[in-house]
Specification:
The chain is an alpha/beta fold. The chain has helices spanning 13-24, 40-44, 62-73, 161-170, 190-201, 300-318, 329-332, and strands at residues 2-9, 29-33, 50-51, 60-61, 79-82, 86-91, 97-101, 106-114, 120-123, 153-157, 176-180, 206-208, 211-217, 224-229, 235-240, 243-246, 250-253, 264-265, 268-270, 284-286, 291-292, 334-335, 341-342. It is 21% helix and 28% strand. Helix 1 packs parallel to helix 6 and helix 4 packs across helix 5. The chain binds flavin-adenine dinucleotide. Flavin-adenine dinucleotide binds next to helix 1, strand 2, helix 2, strand 9 and helix 6.
Length: 354
């Protein structure tokens, strides 16, 4: 059982910044995310795009914003359960919560902050009969650990950035990489398309277009795939492989959270925005893109603000008899849970001699 003060569901920018604000109040956080890496939409959908409306940053790449947030929260030593979806919640008699993921990992927390954005990103799966029998037996819809493909024969399907980037990366790791796409054109960054072209010329990537993987075969695990080539003759090709990775993008779904007894309006969680972004269940908060209230704006800076006020509420919940006095970080500094301390230089009181 993972123990924490605040369990954050969603490691997007809102969830990450929560760790910082909670840390200032000496509250420990653990984050769950269905994706294998933190950053939410910023990392998954537009890491290379510049954002222009983060206060104090005239321009910052979404991926760099995530890196900076990770750096900012490092002293507060957050825990992460990545690649798992928060599935069930139980409220115990003492008012604390147990949240269980789809892989059975259990987390016990005093408060739960749902920072789930548009919902957990679920992979779009190809329409191949029986493919589910090979999931985790060679079929994967996202690459969590590229080392798992070392010296293996891998077939990747897809025509976007993920398919291109992973084909490039695995070309130097796997024994054989085959990239299959139903069109001849790819929708990705120009330099990635050019790099794939170069690797095809060097025989490091076997490119098959316009084509689709239409069957997966194997006894206990993937042993081969059938590729239907969409040329005039409509040919079929059987390729021996250890892994089949369809990378067709992700679609967000509020998913299991929608069944937790929370008030939902237009696919978002209703919260009390006059106070602390708490939901209709005391101790469960919803912050960032996932919540709704009059005047709600789905912007990163709004998520940061909501996270800040929510942490104050959790502090009061855990310390009902303590009065919290707001301290500026410029005055109080930052005491990391790792023993680190950051503080502004103290003013020196010194007599200036005549
Ligand atoms: C192309 C694009 C450009 C944008 N440009 C801007 C901009 O310029 N400025 C701006 O302010 N905003 C911009 N946005 C919006 C901004 O990205 C969002 O407001 C922000 O990402 C919301 O952050 P969040 O942390 O609330 O949610 P998200 O970033 O959506 O993160 C939520 C995370 O929760 C996870 N999750 C959800 N449910 C579960 C579950 N049950 N179990 C486990 N994990 C779960 C998801 O996998 C996801 O990683 C843009 C969005 C897009 C798509």
């Amino acid at each position: 059982m993972i123990e924490t003060d605040i369990l954050i569901i969603g490691a997007g920018p809102t969830g990450l910044f929560t760790v910082f604000e909670a840390g200032l109040l000496k509250l420990k956080c653990h984050l769950i995310d269905a994706l294998p890496q933190p950053g939410g939409q910023c990392s998954e959908l537009y890491p290379k795009k510049p954002i222009y409306d983060i206060p104090g940053f005239p321009e910052v790449l979404a991926g760099d914003l995530v890196d900076n947030l990770m750096e900012q929260i490092k002293p507060f030593q957050p825990g992460f359960t990545l690649g798992e979806r928060a599935e069930d919640i139980d409220k115990l008699e003492d008012g604390t919560f147990i949240v269980t993921t789809n892989k059975g990992t259990k987390h016990h927390a005093n408060a739960v902050a749902i920072a789930g954005g548009l919902g957990s990103f679920e992979p779009r799966k190809p329409q191949i009969v029986g493919i589910e029998n090979y999931e985790d037996r060679g079929v994967a819809y996202m690459i969590k650990d590229p080392e798992a493909y070392r010296d293996k024969k891998v077939v990747i399907a897809g025509g976007g950035d993920s398919a291109l980037d992973w084909s490039i990366f695995l070309a130097n790791v796997a024994q054989e990489v085959t990239l299959v796409h139903r069109r001849e054109e790819f929708r990705g960054a120009l330099d990635s398309v050019e790099k794939v072209q170069e690797l095809v010329t060097q025989n490091k990537i076997n490119l098959i277009t316009p084509a689709e993987v239409t069957d997966v075969k194997g006894t206990d695990k993937v042993e081969s795939v059938t590729i239907t080539i969409h040329d005039e003759a409509k040919r079929f090709q059987e390729i021996e492989c250890d892994a089949f990775v369809p990378l067709f993008g992700l679609s967000p779904k509020l998913g299991p959270i929608a069944n937790w007894g929370l008030e939902i309006e237009k696919n978002a969680i209703k919260v009390d925005n006059t106070l602390d972004y708490q939901t209709n269940i005391p101790g469960i908060y919803a912050i960032g893109d996932v919540n709704t209230y009059p005047g709600k704006l789905k912007l990163i800076l709004c998520g940061f603000h909501e996270a800040t006020l929510m942490c104050q509420s959790v502090y009061q919940r855990m310390n009902p008899n303590k009065k919290y006095v707001l301290k500026y970080t410029t005055v109080g500094g930052i005491d990391g849970f790792d023993g680190s301390r950051k503080e502004a230089e103290k003013a020196v009181i010194k007599k200036i001699g005549s």
